[in-house]
Amino acid sequence: MLGRQLRSFLLALLLGAAIVAAVVGDATEAGIILAILGISVVLGFINEYRSEQAVEALHSQIRRTALVERDGHAAEVDVIELVPGDIVHLRLGDIVPADVRLLEVNGLECDEAVLTGESAVAEKSVAPAHGDSPLDLASCAFMGTVVHAGEGRAVVVQTGSRTAFGGIALRLGERQEQTAFQRGLRDYSRMLVIITGLLAVSVFAINLGAWAPAA
Question: Which of 181, 184, 100 is closest to 144 using CA atoms?
Fold first, then answer.
């Protein structure tokens, strides 16, 4: 998180200016530039850190349970404790806790818009059937979808990141490509650094050339 605050051409340019100011003996200017750099980095770090802490706190307060059959008894279990092979009950309004294979259904319908984008509910059955996509399986219910009608009983097949919903969540968590504005700002910062470097070298060379004949 701190490293992301430091990856900036503008910060590198200002740091270079502070070093030059210190070398030529202008300690006050160098101190001001370094103070601005420090404040910028610290504020950016604090804001990002607080945002991530708020998200984690919210996530820790959210708990979902599922009705699971274990050892011949049905009990409410936290969904993060589900494992393949568990038998779960699906009831009206439930969010399907894992990718499951249906064993019994009674008018079961699921809203799968979160995965497919389709507004129409999907009718479920225990008979195996193949569709046009891996998600078009009437004999399965997928994590994150909602029981729209009826009820059912199913065996857990996949949990967590191995589910269809989990795979989508992992891809969303990957670093996204920079926007056009971010690329433009990065390129502009790089251009400033290059121009400043060229100007500094040119001024040094001119002064050196003017000093050499006098010497």
Answer: 100
Total H helices, total E strands in the chain: 6, 7
Q: Is the pLDDT of residue 90 over 90?
A: yes
* % of the chain at pLDDT higher than 70: 84
pTM over 0.90: no
Residue 183 has pLDDT above 60, yes or no: yes
- Picking from 146, 151, 159, the residue whose alpha carbon sits closest to that of residue 100 is 159
Q: How far is CA 105 from CA 90, 140, 179, in A?
A: 9, 11, 47
Condensed to tens digits (0 to 9), the pLDDT of residues 47-68 reads: 888 877 876 776 666 678 888 9
Report the distance separating Cα 92 and Cα 103, nearest Å. 17
* Distance of alpha carbon 155 from alpha carbon 105, whole angstroms: 12
Report d(CA 147, CA 110) in Å as an integer. 4
* DSSP H or E stretch at residue 79: none
**Cβ-contact 96, 156 below 8 angstroms:** no
User: Which backbone phi and psi does 110 adopt, to 5 degrees?
Assistant: -125, 140
CA 80 – CA 96 distance, rounded (Å): 12
